[in-house]
Amino acid sequence: MKLLGLLSYNAENSINSSVFSEQKAGTFGFITTVSYFHFIGKNIAIGARIGYLAGTLSKIKTTVSGNTTDVKLDDDEKESLSQVNFNAGLRVYF
Questions:
Q1: DSSP symbols for 15-82
Q2: Predicted pLDDT of residue 13
Q3: What is d(CA 31, CA 51) in angstroms, rounded to the nearest whole number?
Q4: 6-19 in b/e burial notation, b at 16+ Cβ within 10 A?
């Protein structure tokens, strides 16, 4: 399965008891998954799935102690937003 859509990024940090930082961003990205399930009985299957999500952040909104700034990243500063997932499971079909 392949999907295209909007990805969001949100990170919150407490620098110390009086300074709080938050970064937010969004981008267009994609996710793809591949899965395989093997029936071990009439209604039961076991299997695995691998997924990959990817996008690139080119602008980040940063808030530190209530002051917000938009940071536009140059081509050599852009951040990758990616993730690999591995899942194993048991399915019961009714």
A1: EETTEEEEEEEEEEEEEEEEEEEEESSSSEEEEEEEEEEEEEE-EEEEEETTEEEEEEPPTTTPEEEE
A2: 87
A3: 7
A4: ebeeeeeeeeeeee
Q: How far apart are CA 56 and CA 59, in angstroms?
A: 9
Q: Which of 23, 15, 32, 13 is nearest to 79 (CA)?
A: 23
Q: Which residue's structure tokens are 């620098």?
A: 15
Can you give the pTM of this predicted structure? Answer: 0.69
Q: For 17-59, what is each residue's pLDDT tens digit?
A: 778 889 999 999 999 999 999 999 999 999 999 999 999 999 9
